Amino acid sequence: MDPARKVDGRVERGERTRRQILDAAVHIASVEGLEGLSIGRLALKLDMSKSGLFAAFGSKQDLQLATVDHAADIFVEQVVRPAMLAPRGLPRLWALCESKLDYSQKEVFRGGCFFAAASAEFDGRPGPVRERIAGHMTKWLAVLVGAVQRAQGEGHLRPDVDAGQLAFELDSYAMGANWAFQLFGDARAFDRARKASKARIEEAAIRQGRRSSSRSPRRKPAATRG
Amino acid sequence: MDPARKVDGRVERGERTRRQILDAAVHIASVEGLEGLSIGRLALKLDMSKSGLFAAFGSKQDLQLATVDHAADIFVEQVVRPAMLAPRGLPRLWALCESKLDYSQKEVFRGGCFFAAASAEFDGRPGPVRERIAGHMTKWLAVLVGAVQRAQGEGHLRPDVDAGQLAFELDSYAMGANWAFQLFGDARAFDRARKASKARIEEAAIRQGRRSSSRSPRRKPAATRG
């Protein structure tokens, strides 16, 4: 066998193992917390040797950081990317709200929103894990605020709307729904969050009849682009 | 010494010790979680003997349950009771929103809202602790929904407002603010939550000029009662 291919094969296997470990870790952490993740526990669960796990992740903290990053990749894949397929402006903002609620309701992570659980667990524990969680959440909020601003730029939302305020309200509904669903199994909370999000976005929208009196949209309205 | 008084004194001392333990426990749990509460840990922190702690709380689970109940007492004392001093109807609903936000912002519990942290930690762990947390939160939501309905009964809020929906939105803002403050230290989130709560309540309110066209209030408006 070509030595280079042999090395490639080993790297690939290593990557596959790492991925397999992290796939299990994100679900465990979403239910029981990142502190519940131990290399011994994961080894048992995955029927792997502890030494193999140690080789993939040097320490518990490295495992926690890699788990947070893996969860962020899944979050982007499940929440952000599908919403980006919606037309720019208001449809995309609405798609972001919907896909965050769907992600929470479908339990992409077994314990509901990974980042709601991880934030609550680590917000009182300064250090790299907390910083990593905060970093991913800062990016998510920037996506949401950016979507509001984009919808303003497209002439879909009123220019005087405070983008940070609207993003705060929309994300709060998703948090409230995730909380009620996880604690009470109350799926109506998602309907409430959808209803509230729709009402806030509609309030902030430039109504069809009034659109001409606002700043002219820089681009054709989303509906005509498809 | 009168033997009865001696027993009374012992009971009183026992109560004082229990209270002292629980006062420490709620703060630790709000930062590090209820799972982080161990009898050994608390004994060290309070400079007490482990056996004394065992005498007060038989098991870790008993300690967790007592901690949740103690946190609920503090929550009622800090959030619910002061709001009940406000005049019935809309002023009391607004006072409930404000006092929940104040409680979270002032960090009555060192790690922010005790129940936000405890819910996130235990929602994936079925058992008596989870049920106890859910029980207290059910009561809190009933207080909030009740305040909306009372404000409708007083003729302050429109009768067609969905009380569960409005309560969901108001409580979501408090959760969103607590989250942002604990994770990012972002105190503006409380201003955002106040602004949003005020806007929702105003939207649901019967405007002065329109009050006569609605169902007549059963009691005199709150403002005239003081």
Structure description:
The structure is a homodimer of 226-residue chains. The first copy, chain A, is mainly α. In chain A, helix 5 packs parallel to helix 8. Chain A is elongated. The C terminus of chain A is likely disordered.
Using only C-alpha atoms, the radius of gyration of chain A works out to 21 Å
Low-confidence stretches of chain A: 210-226
Q: What is the global morphology of chain A? A: elongated
Characterize the quaternary organization of these chains. Answer: homodimer
Any chance you could write out the topology, listing elements then pairs?
Two copies of one chain form a homodimer.
Chain A: H1 3-32, H2 39-46, H3 50-56, H4 60-84, H5 90-105, H6 114-122, H7 128-153, H8 163-184, H9 188-204, H10 222-225
List its traits.
homodimer, 226 residues, mainly alpha, 73% helix
Question: In a nutshell, what does this entry contain?
Answer:
The structure is a homodimer of 226-residue chains. By secondary structure, chain A is mainly alpha-helical. Chain A has helices at 3-32, 39-46, 50-56, 60-84, 90-105, 114-122, 128-153, 163-184, 188-204, 222-225.
